[in-house]
Amino acid sequence: MSQLQDLSALIRAGTPLIIIETADEPQVVDMFRQTLTRVWRAMFRWTITEGLRRIDLDGEDPAEVAADVGTTLRTIRAADQRGVYLLLDFHPYLDYAGSQRQMRDILQRRDCLPHTLVLVGHKVELPAELESKAVRYRPRLPDAAALRRMVTEQAQAYAAENGGRRVEKDPQALERIVRNLQGLGLGDARRIARQLIFDDGALDESDLPQLAKLKFELLNRSGHLHYEYDTAGFADVAGARRLKRWIEQRRRVFTEAEPPPGLDPPKGMLLLGVQGCGKSLLAKAVAGGFGVPLVRLDFGTLYAKYHGESESNLRAALASAEQLAPCVLWIDEIEKAISSGGEGDGGVSRRVLGYLLTWMAERKSAVFIVATANQVRELPPELLRKGRFDEIFFVDLPAADVRAEAFSVHLAKRGFDPAAFNLDALADAAAGFSGAEIEQAIVSALYAAHAADQPLDGALVLEEIHATRPLSVVMREQVTALREWAAGRTVPAD
User: Fold this and answer.
1) CA nearest 93: which of 70, 123, 110?
2) Cβ–Cβ contacts within 10 Å for residue 229, how many?
3) For the chain, N or C: smaller number of CB within 10 Å?
4) The pTM is what?
5) Strands 225-227 and 268-273
6) 1 CB-contact burial (10 Å; exposed 0-12 / middle 13-18 / buried 19+)
């Protein structure tokens, strides 16, 4: 059924009280105006500033009823024809016993016609006596066609306000913009589209990062998600050739609005590996490879002292991520958030894990999960079983050619010509180094060069390498055990 059919059915059924929680009041008024073509009723709107006025006639009648709640309810009760009453931000005034009594008399049709009262507000909380008589209705979010029409209207508005200058549109970028606006109400989507258009008079690929940022700021009311502004590209990551190829094969399927027949969009990956080998950088590069926003879920902010609040926080965070789709959801060091222990916290970790697993299995939105972990033995078995993630990649200590590539990447990032250095010699000297340790060797060499007031050269980098004891030496037993566990159980990233 369409949205209009749903509302018409509720009115025809004589529903006495409908609750609509939304910040987009004009959309609600417009919806009910349209229902008048299906169900004839007198229609009224009430606000504390304007009072009660009829709005279904040509033009709007001036308010003839005082704005106070008691007078309004008495007027509704005494009306001589059935009506639909849109009461905007009316619910705070129902805390008074007299107002509740008048409202119950209307809802119970006590000496009055079968009216339909519609309470509209951002968050509507009612006394229990009234809640039991209410039907909560959630307006449907606009589909792609409605959003496309809205963007066209805003482009026309821009032209009207700028001497007929037409908005420059990239058709492919426009479709991506429309897809990224899905999940928003029409009012919120209109504000973002208007900002993008009026910023430079164009809709193109350059608008997508700004759209993602605006959408995130609008939806992340819980504060449990963090928008990662600086996503990386695969060019910034040394090695990981198998993982890069895996992402490239799935990029179009993930980003297309309609995946090809027989192919489901990819759901996520788990990155295991030695600390410092680039799992976090790879998470950022996956978002860059897909060309979608990256949001990080901060599990530390989810846990609360009251029963059920942690699970509620997780639900709110995941719901926000779904509204941001398509996006990559990064859960860093997931083993610290949902370890297999979990009994000392009263079972909160187990309940949080249970909800996360259910959501991972049942979600339909384009949210790609990248979870990273260092201590695989602390992960619960149910998270690791096949089907939770599309693939489990192991990010190992880099081989010699990857170490040489890492030196090249980090030198170039700092403005040095990698060709001026013997990369193979540096890579051989840095055997057992992780990517992070390679970067720090260059940073330390830069400090040494600055202190000695001389240019950076290969000798200084080699000196820092020889002075460093990598994690693979300091924690040899743990690193070796992790690498042995991963062999045959995971897919090498490189």
Assistant:
1) 70
2) 11
3) N
4) 0.68
5) unpaired
6) exposed
